[in-house]
Amino acid sequence: MAEITQTEFDAMKARAEKAESKVANNKAEIAKMKSDFDALKVEKNEMKPELDAETKQKLDAYDALGKRASDAETKLRTLETEKLFGESASKLKARNASKLFSLVNSKIEYDDSGKPKNLDAVLTDAKTSFPEEFGLVVGGGNSSSIGGGAKGDEVGRSVDDFLRGALI
User: Fold this and answer.
1) Spacing of C-alpha 43 from chain mean position
2) Could you give the dihedral angle defined by the CA atoms of residues 73, 75, 76 and 77, in that order, rounded to the nearest 10 degrees?
3) What span, in angstroms and rounded, lies between the C-alpha atoms of 71 and 80?
């Protein structure tokens, strides 16, 4: 093994001391960074409730707007459906389409675009369930029926018409 001269040894020692000094400086810098980081975490946690309250307020406002929009869509869908129902019911000679709609609207199903998909079936069912609303006689046509004794599917008076006539 080759021997090291004193000069070489002193140079290596100086480099090692310089490296140790850099390591010590880096350790001090790392410790300061950790301290600064911890201080920032504390500051962040102190600010968090304020941000959460502000964020919560914004989310609540967003939710309220979403509910208003959903309610408006539902109301618009109902109005459009009632109009379509009224037009179809009028073609079938319904006497009071609005009243009839209020009786059967819960049975109406909608497709993904919000359009009614079983309106014809609901109208057919309404005509069967509420024949008096279409001017059809209820009962076998005996003289005591509210149509004045009309037979079968002849036009008679609905209960509403009967009551109106009694009040006049």
Assistant:
1) 37
2) 80
3) 14
Q: Does the model's pTM come out above 0.70? A: no
Query: How many whole angstroms separate alpha carbon 113 and alpha carbon 116?
Result: 9
Question: What is the 3-class SS of 6-47, one letter each residue?
Answer: HHHHHHHHHHHHHHHHHHHHHHHHHHHHHHHHHHHHHHHHHH
Q: In angstroms, rounded to a whole number, what is the distance separating the alpha carbons of residues 154 and 148?
A: 11
Q: What is the H or E stretch that residue 129 is in?
A: helix 119-129
Structure tokens given for 69? 């929009």
Q: Note the pLDDT tens digit of each residue in 140-161.
A: 554 444 544 444 444 455 656 5
Work out the number of other CB atoms within 10 angstroms of the CB of residue 21.
Answer: 10
